[in-house]
Amino acid sequence: MLRSSHLAAVxxxxxxxxxxxxxxxxxxxxxxxxxxxxxxxxxTMGIPKELGKAHETLARSVAAKxxxxxxxxxxxxxxxxxxxxxxxxxxxxxAEYAALLKAYQxxxxxxxxxxxxxxxxxxxxxxxxxxxxxxxxxxxxIDSSGKLTGNEIVVQPKVVKSQxxxxxxxxxxxxxxxxxxxxxxxxxxxxxxxxxxxxxxxxFVVLTDKFIKGRQRVASNQFMAWLSQPAGAxxx
Length: 236
What we know:
By secondary structure, the chain is an alpha+beta fold. It is built from four helices and eleven strands; from the N terminus they run H-E-H-H-H-E-E-E-E-E-E-E-E-E-E. Strands 6-5-4-3-2-1-11-10-9-8-7 form an eleven-stranded antiparallel sheet, covered by helices on one side. The longest helix is centred in the N-terminal third of the chain and has 13 residues, at 52-64. This is Lipoprotein. It comes from Pyxidicoccus parkwayensis.
């Protein structure tokens, strides 16, 4: 969805939305995600196939008229999270845009594949081990203070308590980074979240990392998965 809350979100869209306590060497994620082997059931959040054409039309319109849309947004003074009002410049009918907004706000969860993820903690530093195509997780490390380092960024943690997401209300920890140069058309949006659903206690990991160069997407990594430990698995 086009939103006014983050500069980088605009450019990202052009190319297509508990408490952990550090203690000594235990690692920042000891409570939320203890060291061990996990089965990861990956999933994605998407819109109905019948809206795919409208989504692509909107993305192309924004990319082709980025200066117009930038000026349009600057005059609206939208509140964080408030969607962009309809304009014919989107290349859609008002009904098509309304349908897209609804789909963005209530996406469908679609199961993908099952893979294995290993979590290790050594001298207070937590790392992840995953096989391709999810090996971009291996670049991430989290020290005992909660600071995340990986792929040219350093991000401090933020505790999340009973936050509503598109797949449920959850608590845990999130790391968020974004930067944008609207003149060059460059942007990066990074988010890494680990938590549990408040009602079921189901554990999940979400990572999205998107790069835009010259208003063209040059890289995009995404990993969304429910985690569970196979019987007999545990910390090592």
